Amino acid sequence: MARNRLYDADVLVVGLGRFGQAAATELQRLGHRVTAVDKDPALAESYVGHLSKVVQADASNPAAVERLRARDFALAVVGIGSSIEASLLASANLVDAGIPNIWAKAVTPEHARILTRIGVHHVVRPELESGIRVAHLMNGKLKDYIEFDDGFAIVKMAPPQETIGFTLGQSQIRSKYGVTVVGVKAPGTDFTYAVPETKINSQDTLIVSGPTELIERLASRP
């Protein structure tokens, strides 16, 4: 089977904590060739055989990054969270190496701001993002929640009572609430794209997109 070119890049993952190892193993599963780096010999050793290549090295040291030939990687992920200093130094070394697409984990707003200023292309704050997601899920109305920077979200939710037994065209969710039902999933069936003729049943799951506050308004309906 031919490789999927979307996932056919050499990736360098620095730091094999929870975030780094999750990124590394998923990148490997998708088809990337992953080289993982951690300064802890025991931790690095534990991933030998599970990733394309594992190196015990301190990426905060420019000489170590040079030995890794970091400039040859198309993508890099910095998952260091235990030391902001080590994260910043490692990230700066990867920027200096000219890697064209660098992702890094930040643990504080200040950490995120400095990573951006030194040239990291994508900064993620998984703890913050997870906390926001959990807050939206706690009311029990939403089954999943993804929010974007511009106040736009995509959610999975149970259908409001007023939509059950009607088609999307009949219930007029978009005109009433300003959100779009992207798709519908019935138990035991595959996801299907929504059309005006799609009829909603009580056991369905709706995939809805739109402004966050408008989605919350729809989700508050019985």
From TrEMBL:
<feature type="domain" description="RCK N-terminal">
    <location>
        <begin position="8"/>
        <end position="124"/>
    </location>
</feature>
<dbReference type="GO" id="GO:0008324">
    <property type="term" value="F:monoatomic cation transmembrane transporter activity"/>
</dbReference>
<dbReference type="Pfam" id="PF02254">
    <property type="entry name" value="TrkA_N"/>
</dbReference>
<dbReference type="InterPro" id="IPR036291">
    <property type="entry name" value="NAD(P)-bd_dom_sf"/>
</dbReference>
<dbReference type="GO" id="GO:0006813">
    <property type="term" value="P:potassium ion transport"/>
</dbReference>
<protein>
    <submittedName>
        <fullName>Potassium uptake protein</fullName>
    </submittedName>
</protein>
<dbReference type="InterPro" id="IPR050721">
    <property type="entry name" value="Trk_Ktr_HKT_K-transport"/>
</dbReference>
<dbReference type="InterPro" id="IPR006037">
    <property type="entry name" value="RCK_C"/>
</dbReference>
<dbReference type="InterPro" id="IPR036721">
    <property type="entry name" value="RCK_C_sf"/>
</dbReference>
<dbReference type="Pfam" id="PF02080">
    <property type="entry name" value="TrkA_C"/>
</dbReference>
<feature type="domain" description="RCK C-terminal">
    <location>
        <begin position="140"/>
        <end position="222"/>
    </location>
</feature>
<dbReference type="InterPro" id="IPR003148">
    <property type="entry name" value="RCK_N"/>
</dbReference>
